[in-house]
Amino acid sequence: MHIFSPVQQFLLTWLLFLVTGWATLNALSYVGELLSILITAGLIAFYLTMLLLLLQPFLPRNVAAVLVYLVTGFVVVIIGVTLVPPVFNQARLFVTNLPSLVDSAQDQLTSFQTWCAAQFAI
Fold first, then answer.
1. 4 and 51 co-located in one domain
2. What is the value of pTM for the model shown?
3. Parent domain of 4
4. Is the separation of the CB atoms in 37 and 25 below 8 Å?
């Protein structure tokens, strides 16, 4: 004995699927930042462990671990020294030039609206 017709079952299934998806997305919005931090930490731990395992046949485990951490720290410092100042400089220039960029965009939009009005006038 069937309570719902096949069409009703199909619609009910999709409705439940959509409601479940919506509820999942809302739940993930609360814990999304925590998940991204945990996933990033897990990936970093995985890569460091892989480097350690690659060095272990050649060096004792303690020496390999210290070497991996020193090289990783060195790479992080080099990336910080080479990338952070230009990024901050570009951000400062963007904030400084933002009013002129907005004015330029408004002028271009006005000229585009004028062109559209001339092209599509009936």
1. yes
2. 0.52
3. 1-55
4. no
